[in-house]
Design goal:
- This protein is of the alpha/beta class and about 250 residues long.
- Helices cover about 45% and strands about 20% of the residues.
- It folds into two domains: about 130 residues, Rossmann fold (3-Layer(aba) Sandwich), CATH 3.40.50; about 110 residues, Rossmann fold (3-Layer(aba) Sandwich), CATH 3.40.50.1860.
- The chain is built from eleven helices and nine strands.
- The protein has a five-stranded parallel sheet with strand order 4-3-1-2-9, sandwiched between helices.
- Strand 7, helix 9 and strand 8 form a beta-alpha-beta unit.
- Helix 1 packs across helix 10 and helix 2 crosses helix 3.
- The mean pLDDT is about 95.
- Bound molecules: D-glutamic acid.
Length: about 250
Amino acid sequence: MASIGIFDSGSGGLSVLREIRKILPQERFIYWSDNAHCPYGEKTAGYIIDRSRAITDFMLSKGARAVVVACNTATAAAIATLRAEYDIPFVGMEPAVKPAASGTRSGVVGVLATAGTLSAPKYLNIKGQYADAVRIAESVGRGYVELVESLELDGPHAEEVVRASLEPLLEAGADTIVLGCTHYPFLLPVMQRIAPQGVKFIDPAPAVARRLKDVLEQAGIPLNDPEPGVELLSSGPDATLKKLFKLI
Ligand code: DGL
């Protein structure tokens, strides 16, 4: 039985699984929340590479034919190593700076991501490609991952935490904001309430889902599993994953 592995530091990657299932509804997925090691955002690249290898080994032992790194931080730190070391296709996250740069009217693009993503060479390279065309303002979504992992997706405290990292981007004039961490789409309703009308938020997950479909087809991996579904697993006790899964 073929399956597709998906992992994140926690439950955030469910925002990617949601989009993947829209276009690949007949597949079998294994979702791994690495919550015993969450958050990844402030960890070293070496630590994240070791975790990504361990999770990939586990996915292979479960029969995965491809792995989605549904975490911007892990993609930035580890996907090149994974691709070099394993013989299966990997699909990762990339902050959607390109569509944001072509869509902005104010000429300022905001990027919300973890500290790990914003300092990784992979991101700095993407940013460099657009530096002449637009101004890029960045902000670390401090406390956002913790809000999502504790299922505090709205309310006065969530709003205060979201506002603290979002406002600097709005003040810098950003009219298009890239959600550069897979946890952040779960806070989108709060962000939209804080931001003035007309500010656009870009979630790369739909593009990643389309990319996964192409990659599976190109690799000749058979689609339409006879037993479609999602197996939810985590590295530590987890009350969030199953609850958040019900919301997607
Ligand atoms: N959801 C992850 C990302 O996309 C990781 C967040 C974290 O663990 O800090 O970056």
